[in-house]
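INFO  loader      accepted 1 record
INFO  loader      residues=216
INFO  predictor   begin
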Amino acid sequence: MILINLLPHREAARKRRREVFFISLGAAAVLGGVIAGGIYGWYQVQISNQQDRNTLLQTEIKKLEAQIKDIATLQQEIAALRARQQAVEDLQADRNLPVHLLNEMVKQLPDGVYLTSMKQEAQVVTITGMAQSNERVSELLRNLNGKSPWIAKPELIEIQSASVQLSPRDTRRVSNFTMKVRLLRASEAQKAASAASGIASGAAAPASAASGLART
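INFO  predictor   done
INFO  writer      dumping tokens
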């Protein structure tokens, strides 16, 4: 028995292919939407986490800035306290400066030089006096310039010739002078002494080496 299919099978096949195509297209669209949604959600989570980290960093930065301000304030207070301490130490040391001045002037004053007045302003002392000659004044300047640990930068301000009448028949020529010196505080005197000892030791080392070479 022969069976003949008279139904439009080609149209039915095309219809089935269209249905499969639309179903596949819909599944692909759904799958794409799910993937896109997953990616979007993942990025949103990452953005949220980064925002949380940024917020945490900003909070920590503000804390650090506050701590830095506190440290700067403490450093200023420490510097102010050190300045006050140094001022107190300088005042205590300055009380002994007149004693050091008089002691050094007694030591360094050459024969034939007489002082008439001394005036101190801060660490600068103005000295006036008379000497038998200009050479005596030069000797005083040399003594104050290199031999005194408490006096520095002697400067001759003025020197004038004058006459002194010792008796009705004895008149002598003298030199009236004015000079300024700088008194050194205890800390400055110690630094100057340390520098001088360092220079002396540095100069002694080559001399000892040269003497050793001479002996060899």
